[in-house]
Specification:
By secondary structure, this protein is an alpha+beta fold. It is built from three helices and nine strands.
Length: about 160
């Protein structure tokens, strides 16, 4: 039963990756969303932590997508919380760290971006997941680090133009 819930979460996450990937392509940012794979063993989970990529840009850079049940608009100043959970400590285990995170509101379909060059301002907190009651150490950012998708797209297009 736990595996079914985890796999449903992975499928939902992959759907979010596809949503963001389609949006980026519509905005003129070429990218690929790799096919979804499910880890079956502890070894595969460790390998995924190091190598999984949500969205791969044309130049090989990676964007990580996090879908949230929170309701928010595409304006960082209107984000209704002082902080946000960025990721787990798996961020530091990745062989290729993402250049940015995109946070997608499942409720509104709106998105906000967080460039990972802000990671030195992030801090650690132990957070218990409401879905399964399992605590983990999460990386937290101040909402002032959030950017609009327009700002992310402009940044990505500048990189591609080089």
């Amino acid at each position: 039963m736990l595996d079914d819930r985890l796999h449903a979460r992975f499928r939902s996450g992959h759907d979010a990756n596809e949503f963001v990937g389609n949006f980026l392509r519509e905005q003129g940012v070429p990218c690929e969303v790799p096919d979804m794979k499910l880890a079956k063993t502890e070894e595969e989970i460790a390998e995924f932590t190091q190598n999984e990529k949500d969205i791969i840009l044309e130049d090989g850079l990676v964007i990580e997508v996090k879908s949230q049940s929170r309701v928010f608009s595409g304006k960082p100043t209107e984000y209704g919380w002082p902080t946000l959970i960025v990721d787990t400590l798996g961020f530091y285990q990745k062989k290729q760290r993402p250049v940015a995170y995109v946070f997608l509101s499942k409720q509104t379909g709106e998105m906000l971006a967080l460039n990972t060059n802000t990671h030195e301002t992030w801090w650690r907190e132990t957070i218990t997941d409401r879905r399964d009651g399992i605590p983990s150490i999460s990386l937290i950012s101040d909402k002032r680090n959030l950017r609009t998708m327009d700002a992310l797209i402009a940044h990505l297009k500048t990189r591609v133009a080089k």
